[in-house]
Amino acid sequence: MRLNFLITTPEHDLVTFYLSKWAKELIEIAKQKGVNVLECSRDRAIKKTVEGILSKTNPKLVMFNGHGSEDSLFGHGNETLITLGQNDALLNDKIVYARACKSAAKLGKDCKADAYIGYEKKFKFWINDFASANPLNDNFAKPFFEASNQVIKSLLNGRTAGDSYARSQETWQQWIDRIERGNELEDLQFLLPLLNFDKEVQKVHGNENA
Predict the structure, then answer these.
(1) Alpha-carbon distance 90 to 88, whole Å?
(2) Which contacts (CB < 8 Å, 24+ apart) does range 106-112 have?
(3) DSSP bridge pairs for 115
(4) What are phi and psi of 159, to 5 degrees?
(5) Is 142 exposed, middle or buried (0-12, 13-18, 19+ CB in 10 A)?
(6) Which of 72, 132, 186, 188 is most buried by its number of CB atoms within 10 A?
(7) Residues 10, 42: Cα–Cα separation, whole Å
């Protein structure tokens, strides 16, 4: 049976534009592996559509890209998609990765997902204004998205939630170490506070063997 993978990619501001563009790599990898990708892009990343897919197709792997709060995840136009105590049961028995601010603080801890990987505070990254029209060419943003993308890459390679989290953590640290050593990345020293911050606030909850 093919794996169903739900991914939301809203695009209504510069932050979600970046999240969406860097998620395309993950979609392509999933398709190459024969995974059934259920993408809710732009104005399809709304509550009605996401709830329908979660309930009808029951995807085992779910990734949310967008804004968030401690108890909620948001979609296109910041429409609420999932809220703790309201419809979080839709995440039951799934492996969830939320590249969104704060949701690991409460939603990730208290929902009944098999495993939930996310950020307990804000997910922060730098943007190079001169490259903002093409996020994939933004050298300021690249370390943040290579490290955060590693979660889904590892899951798609059959790794457990705990191992995928650990590999993402390793990628954060590799970027931190490379920049600290200087050499060709010496001009990116200003990225270090946010790289360390994101690494620290990235958490995994639930069954790490999922």
Answers:
(1) 5
(2) 106/70, 106/71, 107/68, 107/70, 107/71, 107/72, 107/73, 107/82, 107/83, 108/203, 108/205, 109/205, 110/84, 111/84, 112/88
(3) 95, 206
(4) -75, 155
(5) buried
(6) 72
(7) 4
Query: pLDDT tens for residues 113-167?
Result: 999 999 999 999 999 999 999 999 999 999 999 999 999 999 999 999 999 999 9
Give all strands of the β-sheet with 36-41 in edge-to-edge order: 36-41, 4-9, 61-65, 95-99, 115-119, 202-206
Phi, psi of 73 (to 5 degrees): -125, 140
Alpha-carbon distance of 165 to 89, in angstroms, equals: 23
**Confidence check: pLDDT of 186 > 90:** no
Contacting residues for 37 by C-beta, under 8 A, at least 6 apart: 5, 7, 27, 30, 31
Name the β-bridge partners of 9.
41
* Cα–Cα distance for residue pair 13/70, rounded to 1 Å: 21
Q: Is there a contact between 88 and 68 (Cβ–Cβ < 8 Å)?
A: no
Query: How many CA atoms does the CB half-sphere of 76 hold within 13 Å?
Result: 18
